[in-house]
């Protein structure tokens, strides 16, 4: 096995949809043909995702007797297979069982639900009480967690590099925040809009951890995935919002590739155009903003980010500058011409992102 | 037969790649059958994945196909995990 934390020059493994759109209109059939076929193939999956966004996830109906403003959690066990969602092992209100992974997932779903409701008045992921579903023990030695458009999925890790993905509550919050983004701004998961999608998940994932621990911005560690790396790995977490690029430096994993400013923005076709890499830039902007304001980061700083995500003005293909500009606008609208406005402008300036 | 697997993306955003050369291996026929089926079900361009899902690039004797979690065929999943585990 070899790993490669480094980056090669632009090797475009992923063609952005807008390029395909242009190619499909080309006069040359050699160019247009494959592009059209690609667009057709992707259409089915895009339609599926769009439907989920527009009409809600399939399981959106509330269970009988359920009340709004209460979580509706279900944890499933894939029993090391890959069929989703798997076998139901814990429903809302059920007592904790023996499986710590199931209990952590259930608690993490609850913590996320609570922050959304208490801090932002949002009833679940879709704002309408959507049930929160999670599947644990997905596949064998699976080193990942993801949001499949309808639910969260967690692997156990291989024990060599990664431990159980339900361990850090910010990872659970991160996945659920992908659900919130899907139901609101629906940022396209590629390039800068994809990095913003990732960053929003890191921001709210970290805020859920801070809210759970009752920490202020200065007390928080601003790490994503602390406790997830196996003991033999040299590193503290997967990402650092405070100091992007410093979370790990390991002979197997390589070095944390995140940039901290636009000067070091990474251009790559891999990882959907570096969505987990360049998210370091808006992550750090949020950290700088929250620390400058002080107090609980989910209050004023988190509120402004939430306002931008859910306000309806953020375009699906938004670039860093677009997002930054909207945070300035949101700061003024919610808090007037005060310290919030100055702090948010300064934060973006420090990471080299222009606000208009 | 030279089988290469490259995995990108995922929550950690950490890339992995590995390859297996089946020449001289006693289990070569099994690898060949698995690789042929995995490639037959692959796509010529990378599919749009789900947030934090892994993206895969499978190259068999120079021909490359793409796939993404969680929509992998059983053969693709098996081939990917074997190559990443046993490959160099």
Automatic annotation (TrEMBL), chain A:
Residues 74-182 form the Peptidase M4 domain. Residues 185-353 form the Peptidase M4 C-terminal domain. GO terms for molecular function: metal ion binding; metalloendopeptidase activity. This is Neutral metalloproteinase. Extracellular zinc metalloprotease. The active site is at 175, 276 (proton donor). The lineage of its organism: Bacteria, Bacillati, Actinomycetota, Actinomycetes, Kitasatosporales. Belongs to the peptidase M4 family. Signal peptide: none annotated. GO terms for biological process: proteolysis.
UniProtKB/TrEMBL annotation, chain B:
This is Metalloprotease. InterPro entries: Emfourin. It comes from Streptomyces griseicoloratus. It comes from the Bacteria. It holds the Pfam family Emfourin.
